[in-house]
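In the previous lecture we treated proteins in isolation. Real proteins rarely work alone, and many bind small molecules. This record shows how such a complex is specified: first the sequence, then the SMILES for pyridoxal-5'-phosphate.
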Amino acid sequence: MPSDLSVDSQLVTLGRPPREPGAPVGPAVELTSTYLADGELSYARSGNPTWSAFEETLGCLEGGRALAFASGMAAIAASLSLTGHGGSASRPPGTVVVAPQHAYNGTGGLLAQLESDGALQVRRVDVTRTSEVVQAMDGAALVYLESPTNPMLEVADLPAVFEQARARGVLSVCDNTFSTPLLQRPIELGADVVVHSVTKYLSGHSDLLLGATIAASDDLHERLTTYRTLHGAIPGPMETWLALRGMRTLHLRLQRACASAAVLVDRLQQHPAIERVRYPGRGAIIAIEPVGGIASAKALEHAVRLWLPATSLGGVESMLERRRRHPLEPKSVPEHLVRLSVGIEDVEDLWRDLDTALRAGS
Ligand SMILES: *Cc1c(COP(=O)(O)O)cnc(C)c1O
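The predicted 3D structure, ligand included, written as tokens:
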């Protein structure tokens, strides 16, 4: 395969079987628990060719070595294990992790659990304040970032934070779910490990759960591989096959979703039923706060007909959700904040549905 291909062509081309007469054009779904002895693969908890096709593609896109995990949370748990000793879950007591005050609520929940178990000490920071993040890294083992954050859409100065982390010997991990490697490549910006909820944009069709880590170095890749094998945090072959199939159109889906999001943001900012619009300037996630508080936010969830009232994001279908309905969501997220994930439907249909629902609820 030519190595000078653009990202769009890479999405279409990578992860295919060798170009040979009679070969299939796409990878097979390998459904097996084990392999005949004396080959490269022995037991399917440590390897599967369908995973490899997906991993090769995502690794190239993010500029590191990728591993598929059972879900985004499994990948995040694996990345946090890097503060300890390789494949073991045990960590030296008091190990410090710096994390966003508004991280994805599963990540926040996992960090809180590890903290209450005494396994970690968490320093929560406002990621928009670079000096606060850098200060918190003194004596820390790992800095965990999301940018933009879910659902407050705060943006961190990633190159500055990663550079300071490296200077202090602090491992850096970045959740790149919202941006995808098409909008942001954290390893190029200096991150050690990228994590993804492949469930969202990468697979893109709201039909599976899958996660991934991408490591900048072979050493980190080996440690994450050991963790995955020992913890059995592995995906099913079908999930990785579907995810790779979804990724073939990632550039087209994202282009449409981002263009529609920009149109909707413009109109929402002038809408009489909207108090505040949060949008980091790119991507397809928007957070709105309707006039009239929780009641209006709940009414909006019930009044939409095209938008799906559901948790999750990054699919072809537009979804919205009042995030504070989850008990784990930080209390500093406004109670009436509604997160919109713009899909690839016609933007005028999306606008009409949203506008009608907002007017009905206000
Ligand atoms: C959904 C999500 C996760 C968790 O991923 P799962 O695949 O649901 O386990 C992690 N980070 C972000 C930013 C997410 O949106």
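Summary for your notes: The pocket of pyridoxal-5'-phosphate is lined by residues 71-73, 104, 106, 146, 150, 175, 177-178, 197, 199-200, 209, 211 (CB under 6 Å). The chain has twelve helices and twelve strands.
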